[in-house]
Amino acid sequence: MAALRRQQTIAGPAVCAGVGVHSGAHVRLVLSPAPADTGIVFVRTDVRGVDNVIRAHADSVADTRNATTLRNDAGVEVATIEHLMSACMGLGADNLIVEVDGPELPILDGSCAQFVQVLMNAGFKSLSAPQRMIRILEPVEVHMGAKTAALLPAEHFEGLDLDVTIRFADPAIGVQRRRVELAPGSF
Question: Whole-angstrom Cα distance, residue 96 to residue 54?
């Protein structure tokens, strides 16, 4: 059995800025530490007069075409969050306040690498609460036409084990497969 992991946040604030890939707008992010069980929370600092806090939760997902967009009950949105969320997951950042002064996060280099660097520069602080994890106990499959996605139980549970295959009729893409095992410290 794996050792109990503790939730973590960043050790201090961090700032980054860039251009939103879809809006073309310049946007600035201020990432701040958050207490245990906060999760990742976006705050639209450019929105006033209504609730401008958007939790990064599956229930907040409003759209996934071309980017992931989150929306709160007041209709306030933040888009293109997937690269920052990937960096948070890969580095084990469970709790973070992300102040953003525009409708979407900056694209930076088009990957999560610069977000990883921003988080690494801020450093990490372990919190007293245990980290919450989902363990896949039995296969879960989703079918949409010819598309299939599946989550399968892993033999061991020390991190995230991804085995992804795509099959396209176009020979330029064809069949491609990638297996990645992410364990603490390997992201």
Answer: 12
